[in-house]
Amino acid sequence: MARFFSPTVVDIKNHVEKYEKESREWDKTYSKCLNDVCKKGIRKINEKDISIIKEFLVKWGKMARVLGKRKIWKSKLPNVIRDLCRQLEEFRKLRLENSDINEYEIKIFKCYENIKEIIGPTSAAKVLHLICPNFFPIWDSGVRDKTGVNERAEGYFNFIKRNKEFIVKYNDILEELAKKYKKPKVKIVDECFYMGKQEA
Known about the structure:
Number of domains: 1
Oligomer: single chain
Number of helices: 12
Distance between the termini: 12 Å
Largest sheet: none
Number of strands: 0
């Protein structure tokens, strides 16, 4: 595993505090979109509501170029989310650190693969996180390269397991930072990985 996945507690705190200082304005979009999706609910998402997901992916996630190559994603994605509604609502109630990941392997594969087919691997993980922020981690090609996982479902599944291990190992500092910045622990882990990746 890459160096930034085995930091000290001080490293984690420094990485996250640096991220928060540099990204405070940018992350307002993140918080707004999570709140909007929470209010809307999964079952009611339709093509008009895709603007919330688009804002999250384009304005916060910087996925405009990738999504620009997938012209019909805005019409397809709401249907897929509604089709996966039962599984997503189940994940929405879970916290990654307290979950038996192996129990959910097939459902994770299904959710990830169905969304990935429409918007690609990085956007798929971001949408899953947007809908289920306490369970699904965010990733990008840089993190995949650093961790040696592939973009297929088994790669994302392994990445979820690594995130859980990380949260369990560093739970105290992650909980402290999550409360301080009013964000899910899974997002705090992403901030740590993101800043660690920049320095790796």
